[in-house]
Amino acid sequence: EKLGGRIVLMASRALVKAARSPDDYAKVYGRILSQVKQPVIIHWLGEMFDPALEGYWGHKDHMKAMDVAIDVIKANAAKIDGIKISLLDKDKEIAMRRRLPKGVRMYTGDDFNYAELIAGDGHGLPNQAQSDALLGIFDAIAPAASSALAALAQGKVDTFHQILRPTVPLSRHIFKAPTRFYKTGVVFMAWLNGHQNHFTMVGGQQSARSLQHFCELFRLADAARCLENPELACQRMQAWLALHGI
To answer: Lesser CB count within 10 Å: N end or C end of the chain?
Structure first.
C-alpha cells in the first residue's frame, strides 16, 4: 500500500485453522479493513482450488458462509471495492451479487461460466447486474478476452458471446477437477503460444495432468482460436508427443 499498490485480501489458511466461529472472521476482517487507506478486493477462494480453505467464513455450507461474508461486506462497505468469489457455481455467484451493497462490485472467479456472468442479467443495481472479470483463464485466452470485452464495452453483446463462447469448453477443461492443477494447463498454453521457451514448472507440476489431457487441451485451444501462432504451437505439440513416444 505504501508503494501505491492495490490490495487484494487473499483467503487465509491460517484463519481457517485459528477461527472458532464466524464471529472470528468478522473480527479479523474488520480489524484489517479498518487500517487500509484505499478500498480493497476480498477474495473468497473455494476448497476446489485449495482444500485447506474448506469451511471459510466459518461454514462448510456455502450459502451459510455467504451470509457471513455479506455481513462483513456491509459492515465495511466503504473499505471494499469488491469481492471475488471462486466457487465455480454461477448460481451462488449471482445470489451473492444481488445482495451486495451499492458500490461494491462482484469479480467473477468462475472459470466455468464467466461469459454469461460478465454479460450480466440486468437484475438490480448496476453492481448487482453483472460481474467484472478477474479470472485465471484470461491468461490463456488473452487475445480473445480482450476482443470480447472491447465488443461488450461497445454494446455488441452478440459479438462478445461469439468470441468468448468457444473459449468456455477450453476453460472448463483446464480447470476440471482436481481444479488446483489448473496452472499446468495455463503454463502449457503459454508454452504453446511462445510466451516461454520451456514447459517445466516448480515442483514438477508439469506432470500433474495426463498426456490425454494435454491433447484435448490442444484441440480445444484450436477450436477456440486461442493458438496465437498455429505453426509454432503445432511444432511444440509434436515435440511434446514425441517426448512421450507418440
So the answer is: C
Q: Which pLDDT score, from 0 to 100, does residue 161 have?
A: 96
Is there a contact between 84 and 108 (Cβ–Cβ < 8 Å)?
yes
| Rounded average pLDDT over 45-49 | 95
- Tell me the three cell numbers of residue 214: 494435454
Provide the angle, in degrees to the nearest 10, between the axes of the packed helices 182-192 and 211-223: 60
Q: How far apart are CA 59 and CA 57, in angstroms?
A: 6
What's the grid cell of residue 10?
Answer: 487473499
Peptide bond between residue 51 and the one before it cis (omega within 30 degrees of 0): no
pLDDT digits (tens, 9 = 90+) for 130-182: 999 999 999 999 999 999 999 999 999 999 999 999 999 999 999 999 999 99
| DSSP, res 198 | -
Q: How many other CB atoms are found less than 10 A from the CB of residue 49?
A: 20
Mean pLDDT of all residues belonging to the chain: 96
Confidence class for position 221, pLDDT limits 50, 70, 90: very high
In this predicted model, what pLDDT tens digit does every residue of 182-194 receive, in sequence order?
999 999 999 999 9
SS (H, E, C) 50-98: CHHHCCHHHCCCHHHHHHHHHHHHHHCHHHEEEEEEECCCHHHHHHHHC
Q: 199 φ, ψ to 5°?
A: -125, 70
State the CB neighbour count (10 A cutoff) for residue 158.
8
Tell me the C-alpha distance between 175 and 198, whole Å.
21
